[in-house]
Amino acid sequence: MTKLIIEGEHELSGTIKISGAKNSAVALIPASLLSDEEVIIDNIPNISDIDALDEILIYLGATVSRSKDSIKINSKTITNKEIPEEISTKLRASYYFMSALLGKYKKVEMYFPGGCKIGARPIDQTLKAFKTLGATVIEENNKYKIYADKLVGGTIYLDMPSVGATINTLLASCKAIGTTIIRNAAKEPEIVNVATFLNQMGANIIGAGTSEIVIKGVKKLGSCYTEVIPDRIEAGTYIMAGALLGNNLKIENIIPDHIKSLTSKLKEIGANIKINNNNIIISKIENPKKISVQTLRYPGFPTDLQQPLTTLLTQCNGISKITETIYENRFQNVEYLNQMGANIIIKDKTIEITGPTQLYGTKVKATDLRAGACLVLAGLIAKNITEITDVDYILRGYEDIVGKLQSVGAKISITE
Ligand code: EPU
Q: Which of 12, 87, 125, 291 is deepest in the core (most CB within 10 A)?
């Protein structure tokens, strides 16, 4: 079993370079199927979720070549066939193939997607959008058969600004007949990255990044070159490592605007952060103060940083609070942090973290991707050795986490 072994209490200094955003890249790759020509996507993170998407592309018959952080995809040769359940349940983003194939062929058969088990993750808003565009959706157990004679634009009011439903609607509608409007759309930077990519291929989308997106259908999408934006969640995770152990730790290749909700909270805690054009320099916070945080849709505080933040709050003076409003079950890290010496209680959707407490290394388990990141941060500050199992979750979303942390002074290794 793969494990991360961390010897804690080592100062972090030097530079960590942030990779491309997982949650953008996992949408851009399926989106490329909508083009009839070659597309090149740069700044692709080297994480296992991307490998799973490559597997689907190759299974469908696309020509794919990947080098370091770039991927070249030509979908001319693909066949619209059912993606096997064991592949599509590997990750959440497999459902972007559902909308891309529907948008291209007006027909798709696919299974319910996978993803971290952090509570119910229904896809009703995506299915509602498909139906608004004129598709018939037949659900049999875990499988969906979706087809249409033609897709015709319509207005979709999302019940909540879902990232997945917004991207799926973009993909399914950009070649539909007429105009589609998404109201109450998600505003995450990843949505803008996907819409920009589609526009670079020839789509006509305006308003991405706001709550109303207008998509005028086009007949054909062609070749293009695009880049994945920097991963704001990876950046946030390492910035918090800097807040715990940094000595002028530099986190580079970031877009400071994308992480404002985090940097403003860090300032409340007492951090002295230097924010430059594309990097942030941060040191260990002396006498950190308690804070209260609520996870929200962008530009609010991201749920994906809530678990890593919990580790930082174990070191703050007083009772800090985090309220999770997006997922039902995103506190699985708490049990393990408490085993390491934290003092955290769960009260329904809120956790109360009493600090500061010394953490001690022990054997813990990554129950999901960001819980894993939380435990890595905990291991970095704990006395003695922390052993983290179920590391595969972490490798799904953090490129070379071991190498990046080692390069700034952490004592961390991965063992088979
Ligand atoms: N929801 C519904 N119905 C829907 C869609 C969403 O009820 O049709 C509710 C559910 O409670 C769901 C929540 O809204 O759990 C969030 O759903 P959303 O569609 O916004 O998120 P997602 O597309 O499933 C993406 C990221 C997540 C990130 C969220 C929120 C990908 C592959 N995943 O998920 O990333 O937490 O947006 O920002 O892009 C992670 O990286 O660790 C991660 C979980």
A: 12
